[in-house]
Amino acid sequence: MSATPLHHQTLAELSAALASGSLSSVALTEAVIARTRAVEDRVQAFNSYDAEDALAQARASDARRAAGQARGPLDGIPIGLKDVIAVKDQPLTASSKMLGNFVSPYDATVTTKLRDAGVVLWGRLNMDEFAMGSSTENSATKPTANPYDLSRIPGGSSGGSAAALAAGEAPATLGSDTGGSIRQPAALCGVVGLKPTYGLVSRYGLIAYASSLDQIGPFARTVEDAAILLQVIAGHDERDSTSFKAEIPDYRAALVAPRECPLRIGIPKEYFGEGLDPEVAAAVQAAVEFYKSKGAEVREVSLPHTQYALAAYYIIATAEASSNLARYDGVRYGHRSAEAENLLDLYFKSRAEGFGSEVKRRIILGTYVLSSGYYDAYYGRAQKVRTLIREDFIRAYGEVDVILTPTSPTPAWKRGEKTENPLSMYLADIYTIGVNLAGLPAISVPCGFTTGGLPIGLQLIGKPFAEAELLAAAHVYDSAHDWVKRTPVL
Amino acid sequence: MTYEAVIGLEVHVQIKTRSKMFTRVPAGYGEPENTLTDPTVLALPGALPVMNRAAVDAIIKAGLMLGCEIAPVCKWDRKNYFYPDSPKNYQISQYDRPICVGGAVEIELPGPARNIMGEHKSIPLTRIHLEEDVGKLNHGAGGSLIDYNRAGTPLMEIVSEPAIHSAEEAYAYLTSVRNSMLYAGISDCDMEKGQMRCDANISIRPVGSTALGTKVELKNLNSISFVRDGIAHEVARQIAVVKAGGTIVQETRDYDGLTGTSQSLRSKEMAHDYRYFPDPDLMPVKVDAEWKARLAAELPERPFDKQRRFMAAAPEGYGLPYTLASVLIPDRALADWFETAVKAAGPALAQPVGNWIANDLLRELSASGTALADAKVTPAALAELVKLIDAGTLLQNAAKEVFADMFATGEAPAAIVARKGLAVAQTDTGELEQWCRDAIAANAKAAAEFKAGKESAINGLKGPVMKAAKGKVNPKLVDETLRRVLAAM
Questions:
Q1: What is the pLDDT of residues B426-483, one digit of tens each?
Q2: Which among A240, A231, A245 has a CA at the least distance from the CA of A113?
Q3: Domains of chain B (ranges plus CATH)?
Q4: How far apart are CA A442 and CA A445, in angstroms?
């Protein structure tokens, strides 16, 4: 029996306890609810949660297990969802006033998969509005705090998903990652965050920000936990045309027999330049030394088009967003201005009142880059840059198996520090954005703390659809360190 | 100075598929409002499109019917604009890589008389692409309501080159497009139900000039007659403006078919910037040779090819006159019905078979409100009837009565003839020769004229004989007997 309180245990531990009968889903769910009630006023990770509904799901899980019909390792375990993933009959807000009190009439595909696995669907987690941001300060609901320092941001856009997990308000969560929105908050909150290869996890029922970049992925305490959760949500979905028909291997089994080093690790020189916090650099360097000590071959690689990634991202993502967010118009659902006199008024006022300033900024930018006469200069060029960035990675994978970088150039910053300067906020995603443009899988793993006690994450980037190898490589480090044992004091 | 019109048509045709273009919800017309919807149709947060392959099959067939190149790869683009009938506020369409490129529509202009075929021309096409239809706004006193049942219905847009030069040509073009779509089962093309809609880009230029003038887009041409009338009206309007020293303004005009007038909707300055870009939710579509070949094998004969064949002399065709072919061709099922009957009757009887269809069958169908598919009379039965007439067993007038019974009951013609005793005598039972003598005696003048060499005079003798026989004798036999009796006198 672990001395760790239930709310800080891993999925692997909880799953074993449930299977052995030493723990019931109701007891676990009650513990999670109690922990949430104890700390949520300070962390503010949830937009909403429905304790009664969660307990009803927990009772159903216990009944299944009693009947010998448990559905797998996650049956009975509460998992929180970023408030951008549709759950039937539950609110879905994307942390925007624009969606108002919208309740989804349908389940996202990942939600269905979690239900089929017996998961207790737990709460809707705060985020930057429509997943646009790196600090969760762009939420129209409230700012979420970093559990390690309540005056600091948890990262974003999936800040609620990372903070809730770190604070013990959920044993694991799902987020979405368009330019780093899983990995960066995972790094800043000291948890594991995985962005799968584009197309591995269905986007059906995920509120779209930038369709060609968005991916749903797990937040978990360990790499092993991330593997367990990925197993449930991965796989082809005929309702998402961009979902890939790939064989899904047994991710957890791939960890049991890790690709023994010699693992070949590439260090991209472009990722270690100006703007990298020295404490982050040192922690990542220590991780590199660890891999070397395990027999990994570490070599420098070059991703020469890295410097163009941020610009290309803010053209492609905003262009897609300007179109994706056009459906929020006050006509069928969501916020409708009470002041509208005619149709144009309805559009202008509903959207002006409903969207926050960062969302408006990106819609305007995206509308501009797609405008007649500007398309080739912006969107067309950005797509070419995107191809070059992908080719950079593919070329590097000719010589290495994974690429290792810091996840975020800095640890968590103070709330309000970057809100006046959107560009400085955009730079927080400098190490994560290229991965989305290239469609690759990448994982952020805790690799230490600053002297001030703030978590630091390292990023491993894998080959397309090589999640098993990527998780195995991350597990080599993660299973030999116990950063996970260090939980925030709340 | 004289002017000519230069017209390009954009014809939207709804594709008849079970489900919508990008989701499994059924497509349909006349259902209760907002029942043919789902998260994708309503553009709920998180919903995604998935392409309907049956709709792509249909547009490839349309392209093959009209001689288009089928692009080996095409893609989907978003056309962005805000309007409440468009739930996503963008329409999934095809911008720069449509599925069908080029091709042509064969048209037939009106002839100098109803029974003389007019000139055939080929109107080149620019492209055909696939997109999704929008919903319907119902404006009422209390506000506007939206019905999304139509939203997401597969819709193809057939774009012609500016190669149409009159309202009559435009009318012929639409008729031809409609016939081709009906033939291939792609759409019912019912303009009243909005299954086929037309916008026209119209300009004028001095005859002899090859430059294109400033174009005006005319919208809401929602019947084939409105297309003709609207274009004629717009061409006349433009010529009047230019002749009065004015200039044509690039604009979109709305045509009101009931009043025969048009008014400006928006000028060029107000034109939309649709901000087209590739839809990241959908993959490009690859059409390989095998896919194309499978659909090509399902294509029907083109309507004008059928017309040429029906009018060609035997043995290639049936030698039908233009008017008869014109009745049969527009309705593929009727043309097939005709060919089945001719097969049973024999090619020599093609024209009488055609006449019976064009005159009697269509009249009975229309009078009783019956669809051809539900008719009790079969092609084989009509063939049998025509053969009975040809053999002289049944007279034309009696045959009309027999056909009415066949249509009403589905009974075989031979059975009706037997039951009603309508068969005519095929040999002289002894009375015929006497009836002939009586007729000659009563019409001495006609008999004398015939003997003097006036061949047609014999017809004056046949009538009284037939009357005496009460019609139940083969006219050929009457003819032979009369000649024999006259020769012996």
A1: 777 678 888 888 889 888 888 888 888 888 888 888 888 888 887 778 888 888 888 8
A2: A231
A3: 3-291 (no CATH), 301-420 (no CATH), 431-488 (1.10.10.410)
A4: 10
pLDDT of amino acid A443 = 98
Closest in B43, B146, B281 to A241, CB measured? B281
The long-range contacts involving A460-465, CB below 8 angstroms and separated by at least 24 positions, are A460/A402, A460/A403, A460/A404, A461/A393, A461/A402, A461/A403, A461/A404, A461/A405, A461/A435, A462/A197, A462/A401, A462/A402, A463/A397, A463/A401, A464/A197, A464/A439, A464/A440, A465/A197, A465/A200, A465/A244, A465/A246, A465/A441
Which residues does chain B have within 8 Å of residue A104's beta carbon, measured at their own beta carbons?
A: 44-46
Residue A235 lies in a domain: yes
Give domain status of residue A47, yes or no: yes
Residue with tokens 């009586």: B438
Task: Return the pLDDT at A261.
Answer: 54
CB contact under 8 A, A104 and B46: yes
- Beta strands in A319-394, from DSSP E residues, in sequence order: none
pLDDT tens digits for range B143-195: 889 999 999 999 999 999 999 999 999 999 999 999 999 999 999 999 999 99
B282–A contact, CB cutoff 8 A: yes
Query: DSSP secondary-structure letter at B313?
Result: P
Provide the H-helix boundaries in A67-181: 109-116, 159-166
Residue of B nearest to A207 (CA): B46
Report the number of distinct structural domains present in chain A.
1
Q: Does B50 touch chain A (CB under 8 A)?
A: yes
Q: What is the DSSP string of A267-297?
A: EEGGGSSTT--HHHHHHHHHHHHHHHHTT-E
Range of the domain at A132: 6-264
Residues on chain B touching A236 (C-beta within 8 angstroms): none
CB–CB contacts below 8 A, A to B:
95
In a domain, A354, yes or no: no
Kindly list the residues from chain A whose CB atom is less than 8 angstroms away from the CB atom of residue B277. Answer: 319-320, 323, 370, 375, 379
Contact A333 B44 (CB under 8 A): yes
Task: Give A421's contacts (C-beta < 8 A, 6+ positions apart).
Answer: none
Residue B188 DSSP code: -
Average pLDDT value for residue range A302-325: 97
Contact at 8 Å (CB) between A447 and A284? yes
Check which CATH number belongs to the domain holding A175 and give it. 3.90.1300.10
| Global ipTM | 0.96
Query: B131-149 pLDDT, tens per residue?
Result: 999 999 999 888 889 999 9
Which of the residues of A are catalytic? 82, 157, 181
CB A196 within 8 A of CB A441: yes
| CA closest to B78 among chain A residues | A323
Q: Which two tokens stand for residue B301?
A: 């004969």
Chain A residues at the B interface, defined by Cβ less than 8 Å, are: 84-86, 92, 94, 99, 102, 104-106, 108, 203-208, 210-212, 238-242, 319-320, 322-323, 326-327, 329, 331-333, 343, 347, 367, 370-372, 375, 379
What SS3 state is found at A103?
strand
Contact call for residues B98 and B74 (beta carbons, < 8 A):
yes
A53 domain residue, yes or no: yes
Coil, helix or strand at residue B88: coil
For chain A, the 3-state helix, strand and coil shares in percent, each to the nearest 5, are: 45, 15, 45
What long-range pairs does B191-195 form, CB within 8 A, spacing at least 24? B191/B222, B191/B223, B191/B224, B192/B222, B192/B223, B193/B29, B194/B14, B194/B150, B194/B222, B195/B13, B195/B14, B195/B29
Write the CA distances from A227 to A71, A253, A256, integer angstroms.
Answer: 17, 9, 11
Residue (of B391, B390, B384, B396) closest to B466 by Cα position: B396
pTM for the full predicted model: 0.92
